[in-house]
Structure formats: C-alpha cells, structure tokens
Amino acid sequence: MALHHQWDPKRFMATAAGTEASYARWLRSQLEAPDVVLLAAEQETKIVGYAYGSLEGHDYMALRGPAGVIHDLFVEPDRRSQGIGRMLLGATIAALQGRGANLIVLSTAEKNEAAQRLFAAAGFRPTMVEMTLNGTA
C-alpha cells in the first residue's frame, strides 16, 4: 500500500498508524471464506510474502463473467528475485483453477514494471487500462 502511494499519492491512499494491523485483521477474517485463496510464503519461520485471490461471479462493470481474481501478491523487498512471487502466483492460479476458475484476472500499478513482467511471464496479457482524473476540490 505504501509503495503504491509513493508511486502515485493522488490515486492510492496513504497508510496510517493502524493500517497494517487493520489489513492483517481483515485478511484473517477471509481465511474461512469458501471462495477465497489466501496463501503465505514462509522462510525460516517468517512470512515473507502472500497472495490473496477469490472466485467472483459476473461483474458487469468489469465486463466479465465469473472469474478468479488475484487481488494482491506481495513479497518482502529483501526477499524478491528469489522466485517467491512466481511460486505464490503459480500456487494461486492453480488453487483458483482447481476451484473452477476458467478466467483469472488481476490488476497492477502502472509503474510496477517488475510485477507486470512476472504476470506476463505467467501468461497474463493486458486487457484494461485504468485512468484517473483528480478533481480540483
């Protein structure tokens, strides 16, 4: 969240003192949801990355039918380039497909070129471009 805010503070919300704990609490609440895939990568008893995805129905605003949606994929900065992100992505795709997803979609920040390379290497292709207009208020 903080990295996205650094890239574009007019688009992405800033973190606050309780943001990390609030997000962790929310992720824990998703653990038992039947349509959610939440995976963690662990090295030496430390969580070094995670992936969060879900099965979703028709989304007429996104112009798509039922799909697996990868909402979040994160690897600690000092653990990147070790294949952890690739492993999490592959496991998330497999889990969503194993639950019946024939289509999997995700979004990535425009400036996150490393993630875009990872996703392209896994077979994802660009299909939508989000554009933002900030008002004067």
Total strands: the figure is 4
CATH class of the domain at 34-121: Alpha Beta
**Which whole number gives the mean pLDDT?**
94
Q: Shape, please?
A: globular
Elements, N to C (H/E):
HHEEEHEH
Low-confidence stretches: none
- CATH superfamily placement of the domain at 34-121: Gcn5-related N-acetyltransferase (GNAT)
Helix content: 25-40%
Q: In order across it, which strands form the biggest sheet?
A: 1-2-3-4
Number of H/I helices:
4
**Class by alpha and beta content:** alpha+beta
CATH architecture of the domain at 34-121: 3-Layer(aba) Sandwich
- Rg calc: 16 Å
List the defining traits of the structure above.
4 strands; four-stranded mixed β-sheet; globular; alpha+beta; 4 helices; Aminopeptidase; about 140 residues
Please characterize this protein's 3D structure.
It contains four helices and four strands; from the N terminus they run H-H-E-E-E-H-E-H. It has helices at residues 2-7, 19-29, 84-98, 113-121; strands at residues 36-43, 46-56, 67-75, 104-106. It is globular and about 45 Å long. By secondary structure, it is α+β, with helices and mostly antiparallel strands.
Short account of what is shown:
With 137 residues, the protein is an alpha+beta fold.
Spell out the blueprint of helices and strands.
Blueprint: H1 2-7, H2 19-29, E1 36-43, E2 46-56, E3 67-75, H3 84-98, E4 104-106, H4 113-121
